[in-house]
Amino acid sequence: MNSTAPNLYTTIKVETTMKMGQKQMGTGITVCQEGMKATASTGRVNMEAMINSIQSELEETNYWTEDCPRGTAYTARPADSIK
Asked: How far is CA 1 from CA 4, 6, 8, 37, in A?
């Protein structure tokens, strides 16, 4: 049976370059070292749900903890290779 429906399940890899006091999206990891990089591979996920989740996360661009300076913003970009 051939289906024309798109396959919304795939593996995506996201690399973020973090600044002081930032948390990696969805992991609870706090970065207290400027420029530290964090890479996460999601495995098989529903792309629509993932996109909605990322958009929701990106609405909050300032992260901080009591141990790190406040008011820093993070930048996210696609990993060099998405497999």
From this structure: 10, 14, 18, 44
Would residue 43 be called left, alpha or beta, if left means φ above 0 and alpha means ψ between -120 and 50 degrees?
Answer: left
* Closest to 11 in 3D by CA, of 55, 60, 38, 46: 46
Phi-psi group of 74: left, alpha or beta (phi > 0 → left; psi -120 to 50 → alpha; rest → beta) = beta
Residue type, position 57, single letter: E
Q: Three-state DSSP class for 53?
A: helix
Give per-10-residue mean pLDDT for the chain (83 aa).
52 52 49 46 55 58 44 44 44
Q: What is the pLDDT of residue 16?
A: 54
> What is the phi/psi pair of residue 14, to 5°?
-125, 130
